[in-house]
Design goal:
Pfam families: Peptidase_M76 (PF09768). The structure is a single chain. This protein is mostly helical. 54% of the residues lie in helices and 5% in strands.
Length: 239
């Protein structure tokens, strides 16, 4: 039998994991120690990711419940969400709370659209109701494009670039205040266009058929003028 006096550490004071600064544990004291390690720069990127994953798992139920409540509110009261929902319905689609899912995601993205299943919202990535509104609008533009323009999501990078340009431009996620206060993009001119282009390149670059960054930029440039000008179903950039 092991002598308790020889124990390396008491249960309430877990050791750091693999020297990356992260301390496993859900108690308040451990959480504060991890936060302090982040603030003082003692936690590595690997440790920060472990801390973040543990937090997401711990808060999964609360995050999903909050996301669902805010989703339902936006479907009923948000002008941009209601407008997009109505236009999707006119094209024969149907997006509502039965196929807009709030889930905990393991990859660092805000959401996604699947033509067969609907919209996924990553509840653990949502900062507030405004962020959720932008994310829903972004994915609903993808849904509109899928129905209106018959997007080839698998093989056609030009299609992917075009719908990403439109979604980033029309959803509100690239408006000046969002870029300035949340993403540290402090330019006062051409900010909207640069944000849309940046996000479109990142999206195209992540697709398997894209060769590299230069290839993604080339595809985005090829469709930029026509797709950025296309504001359907809005008369102009709404937000």
């Amino acid at each position: 039998m092991t002598d308790p006096s020889q124990s390396s550490a008491p249960a309430s004071h877990p050791e750091r994991s693999a020297d990356n600064g992260y301390i496993p544990g859900d108690d308040t004291w451990t959480q504060w120690r991890n936060i302090f390690s982040v603030l003082t720069g003692k936690m590595t990127d690997e440790g920060k990711e472990q801390f973040r994953v543990a937090r997401d798992i711990r808060n999964e139920t609360a995050d999903c419940n909050r996301c669902e409540e805010q989703r339902n509110f936006l479907l009923q009261y948000s002008p941009v969400i209601r407008y997009l929902s109505d236009n999707i319905r006119q094209l024969g689609g149907d997006l509502h709370n039965h196929n807009i899912y709030c889930r905990r995601c393991t990859n660092r993205k805000a959401g996604g659209f699947d033509p067969e299943y609907g919209i996924l919202i990553c509840a653990n990535e949502m900062k507030d109701q405004g962020h959720l509104e932008d994310t829903m609008a972004h994915e609903m533009v993808h849904a509109y494009d899928h129905l209106r323009f018959k997007v080839d999501w698998t093989d056609n990078l030009r299609h992917a670039a075009c719908t990403e340009i439109r979604a980033s431009s029309l959803s509100g996620e690239c408006r000046w205040a969002r870029e300035f206060f949340r993403r540290g993009q402090w330019k006062f001119t051409q900010q909207h266009q640069e944000c849309v282009r940046r996000r479109a390149v990142l999206s195209v670059r992540a697709r398997p058929s894209c060769k590299d960054e230069a290839h993604a930029q080339k595809v985005v440039n090829e469709v930029w003028d026509s797709c950025f000008r296309d504001t359907r179903p809005f008369d102009e950039i709404y937000r």
